[in-house]
Amino acid sequence: MPENSAGLVSKATAVYVKDLRLELRSRVGLNAVFMFGLTTLAVVSFALGQASLSPKILGALFWIIIFFSAMSGLAQVFVREEEAQTALALRLNADPDAVFLGKLIFNFSLLIVMTAVITPLFFVFTDAPEAGALNFLIILALGVIDLCAATTLVAAIIAKASVKGALFAVLSFPILMPMLIALTLASDKILAGGSLSEVSGHLQFLTAYAIVMLTASVMLFKYVWQE
Amino acid sequence: MWWKYLIFLAMSVIIWFSFTTPAPQQQIGEASRIFYYHIPQAWICVMAFTMSAYYSIKYLKKRNAIDDDCAADASRLGLLFCFLATLTGAIFAKVTWGAFWNWDPRQTSIFILLLIYGAYFALRGAIEDSERRAGLSSVYAILAFVTVPFLVFVLPRMVPSLHPSDSVINKDLKFTMGPQVRTIFFSSLTVFTVMFFWIFNILKKTNILRRKIEAGTI
Q: Across the 227 residues of chain A, what is the mean pLDDT of every consecutive 10-residue run?
């Protein structure tokens, strides 16, 4: 039904624009994610000094920084609704699918902005080989999509619990771990100068993971949202 | 009732035979007897996880509080057996591979399963309202269950494994079960499974009674 899907897209866009506007006013999520990433990166870089690292360690460090930065800000999008007590109004005005899509795309934008700054800085600070940088971007993009796909529903869950901040990382980590393993393995190969065909299995894994998590999240979101 | 006597008897017989028959794997020797216990525990851990997801789906569809109790109880038992399987696995790993822990894919997946169970109970503890707790933890249980195929089928193909894929102990130490070993192993698997359901049913009955008392119908 084209009318329905058009309605969904326009409503999801409306949710997204609303969140974007709120974010631009307060910059809470962006500040949290960005400053966390920058601080961790600085600590890592400071601790390592001039030591040259193997691609394996570089890949692992990079994903640790991205994971914890994401954990510091991605829950904001739902926690804000609960804290300002606007969730009910939103529930009345948009169906769950539209809300989920809007929030998902918002989180995605947030992470894209964050990684766009942190990734170049990471390459500068840690002296990672630039040769594989372009291939690394593809892994990075998939990783960011996977992160959002799996954690947006968790963010919606923890927004309704009592100890929100700590719980988000605790609930997200086990779900993200298969994908984090694939990401670090793929990053290791790419940073060591490997081609994309070498990591095609990992790329397939990451794509499949995103599709499965997105499907499950869309199906389950209405149960969380109506709670 | 008589189930517990049956389980007691069968378990005793299995323990007796698992220690008196020749060790199932000659190269590893006596230590390989742990295999009669380790694999059933790991199996129950995964089964409990599946049951938890099943009851969670049932809860979201029907909204019966008892289904949420069952999901939580299955997870509680799953956590126990998951812990036992990790422990026996680590001991076995020390004897055969030389270290308690080496991030073999199977060890990774059981570790993630432990984390999921832990996260599930952390979530349950963080929500006051029982209906909201039931709904949200059901969603989390299902979401976590969805990642299992990646852990069980995909991950072991990406990371080199010490666990056997085509044999039971190790690729280098080919091990096909003889008829005697097979009998003991499958009996052990069956008895462990029956024991799991026995405990699970007691918990279920307790919960039904508790719900009735709370509702004042008893």
A: 69 90 86 88 84 83 91 87 85 88 93 91 81 85 93 92 84 91 89 84 91 94 88
ipTM summary value: 0.89
Q: How far apart are CA B95 and CA B98, in angstroms?
A: 6
| Whole-Å CA distances, A118 to A113, A132, B123, B210 | 9, 17, 31, 53
- Pair B114, B83: CB distance under 8 Å: yes
Separation in Å, CA of A25 to nearest CA in chain B: 31
What's the Rg (C-alpha) of chain A? Answer: 18
The three-state DSSP-derived secondary structure of B123-162 is HHHCCCCHHHHHHHHHHHHHHHHHCHHHHHHHHHHHCCCC
Is B20 a domain residue?
A: no
Q: What pLDDT digit, counting tens, does each position of B101-139 carry?
A: 888 877 888 888 899 999 999 999 999 888 999 999 999
Residue with tokens 């852990």: B151
Q: What is the C-alpha to C-alpha distance for residues A207 and A141, in angstroms, rounded to an integer? A: 11
Q: Which residue has the tokens 């109506």?
A: A226
Q: Is B4 a domain residue?
A: no
Radius of gyration of chain B from its Cα atoms, rounded to whole angstroms: 19
* Chain B residues with beta carbon closer than 8 angstroms to that of A167: 122-123, 126
B139 touches chain A (CB under 8 A): yes
* Overall number of domains in chain B: 1
Give the DSSP letter string of B19-83. HHSPPS-TTTGGGGGGHHHHHHHHHHHHHHHHHHHHHHHHHHHH--HHHHHHHHHHHHHHHHHHH
User: Is B166 inside any structural domain?
Assistant: yes
B7/A contact by beta carbon, under 8 A: no
- In whole angstroms, give the CA distance from residue A119 to residue B212: 58
Is A157 within 8 Å of B136 when comparing Cβ atoms? yes
C-alpha torsion sign, points A170, A172, A174, A179: negative
Q: Which domain holds residue B125?
A: 32-215
> Any CB–CB contact under 8 A between B161 and chain A?
no
Residue B27 lies in a domain: no
- Residues B21 and B180: beta-carbon distance below 8 Å: yes
